Amino acid sequence: MIRADLDAIDLKILRELQNEGRVTNVELSERVGISAPPCLRRVRRLEEAGIIKGYRALLDAPSLGYDLVAFCMIGLKLQSESKLKAFSTAAEKWPLVRRAWMVSGESDFLLECVAENLAKFQDFVIEELTAFENVDTVRTILTIRQTKDAPAVEI
């Protein structure tokens, strides 16, 4: 399914689910203006097509003791496909890495990291990132305060 296959009702469903993923199917169907059975069929079709990737609760990390958010820009010595895949696979296994992107420019990867404190983050950088084979450079950016959090896609 591609965007061209989405009609106005599909887009309304996606908007509503982005804003409130726990809405019941009955409430969702009322909000988008169709009855419950076709609404459920549409949601399932959007899920099966991979447009809706899943549902999750958004947690407040500091309330759970995770006070540090940092970004790491990683430069690799070699950028062959196998080396890029190896680093990507490693990043998937590191609990502090919450999101990762392969990027172009001065760095090869951008990692968003969340840690309990600076000491835990420093240990991760020294023991995991800089120690990983093929890593050439690690540049870190410590955040001060988040000023925007818009996880939804504009529809």
The number of distinct β-strands equals 4
**What's the SSE pattern?**
HHHEHEEHE
Terminal CA distance reads 16 Å
- List low-confidence stretches: none
Strand order of the largest sheet: 2-3-1-4
| Structural class label | alpha+beta
Number of domains: 2
Kindly report the name of the CATH homologous superfamily of the largest domain. Answer: Lrp/AsnC effector binding domain/regulation of amino acid metabolism (RAM) domain
The CATH class of the largest domain turns out to be: Alpha Beta
CATH architecture of the largest domain: 2-Layer Sandwich
From the alpha-carbon coordinates, what is the Rg to the nearest angstrom?
A: 20 Å
CA-based shape: elongated
- In round numbers, the mean pLDDT is 95
Helix content: 25-40%
Q: Would you give an account of this structure?
A:
By secondary structure, the protein is of the alpha+beta class. It folds into two domains: 7-48, Arc Repressor Mutant, subunit A, CATH 1.10.10; 61-142, Lrp/AsnC effector binding domain/regulation of amino acid metabolism (RAM) domain (Alpha-Beta Plaits). The chain contains five helices and four strands, in the order αααβαββαβ. A hairpin with a 6-residue loop joins strand 2 (97-102) and strand 3 (109-115). Helix 1 packs across helix 2. The model has no long low-confidence stretch (mean pLDDT 95).
